[in-house]
Write a structure and sequence with these properties.
It contains ten helices and 13 strands. It is α/β, with parallel strands linked by helices and 311 residues long. The protein folds into three domains: 52 residues, no CATH class; 166 residues, P-loop containing nucleotide triphosphate hydrolases (Rossmann fold, 3-Layer(aba) Sandwich), CATH 3.40.50.300; 80 residues, Ribonucleotide Reductase Protein R1, domain 1 (Orthogonal Bundle), CATH 1.10.40. It has a six-stranded mixed beta sheet, sandwiched between helices. A three-stranded antiparallel beta sheet has the order 1-2-3, with no helix packed on it. Helix 2 packs across helix 10. The structure holds guanosine-5'-triphosphate, magnesium ion (MG) and zinc ion.
Amino acid sequence: MLSQHSGRWVVTTTDGTPRLVAARGRLREADDGPPVTGDWVALDADGAIAAVLERRGTVIRRAAGTKTAPQVLAANVDLALVAEPLPEPNARRAERLVALATAGDVAAALVLTKADLDPEADMNAARLARSLGVADAVAVSVRDGNGLTVLRALLEPGRTALLLGPSGAGKSTLVNTLLGHDRQATAPVRASDGRGRHTTVGRELLALPGGALLIDTPGIREAGLWDETAVAFADIEALAAGCRFADCAHEEEPGCAVREGADPERLAAWRKLRREQAWIEDRRAAAREREQRGRSHRALQRDARRIKGDG
Ligand SMILES: Nc1nc2c(ncn2[C@@H]2O[C@H](COP(=O)(O)OP(=O)(O)OP(=O)(O)O)[C@@H](O)[C@H]2O)c(=O)[nH]1
Ligand SMILES: [Mg+2]
Ligand SMILES: [Zn+2]
């Protein structure tokens, strides 16, 4: 599965030619949602997608504007490249994206872009990676080529990497550099505030010259994923702090200061953000637990081998 376009999917078949296909109705409404970029799919005799093969690493967020529906951003991802631009990478945001990846059993590497804008780029990459608990980190610049060799080494042949990061981080510029030609549209950040313009709109699987596969993504728009609750909703947080119920969920409780004092629309947005954060936290905790179980299992095996070896 190469890419998705409102109800149509581009797939490559064994002969390597891309084809635009539809999906069977029940698949479009399946529990796991419709086929996504990175999926392996089976086509039926009519050439429509009949089945989606089981997914390995998935990067999932809550779909924009819904309470619980997960949106699979990409499937069968081996490595998430969490991109933040220098000279002022946003550590909180990077942490969220790393969490999103590890929650889906996808390894994460930190990629600080625009290294030419920071004389301490390498040191800052190492420092931020350490604080995030991420093993691989690189500071790259497409302007002077720094870090590109290290980045290429992270992109192993046959493996799929997914670029995640805010709009304007330089994700598509990096993709074009790795591809060796201008495949993806790019745009300068806004001069006034340095924000990106959401240039990339789809998610597409691209084959790199070295044999790795790379998915460029749009900078995630969802404010919920980016802003710190406390900063973005300072007014509501203040009401919550003053609520007379210490354990108030600020949902149904009569006399709740938040329900009484807050603008309903802002309150709804605040709740949505809190649910989203809780949801990501849950998935992250579950992934940590899986990791822990795996580790103690490996330790047991090691002990067993040692005992056998001694005997
Ligand atoms: N100085 C410097 N600028 C860069 C570098 N890489 C990208 N840029 C600039 O950053 C701007 C945004 O780049 P894009 O590649 O469009 O950013 P993006 O992350 O794909 O953004 P969206 O598609 O909106 O999510 C462009 O003006 C690029 O020229 C770099 O290594 N150094
Ligand atoms: Mg882009
Ligand atoms: Zn309350």
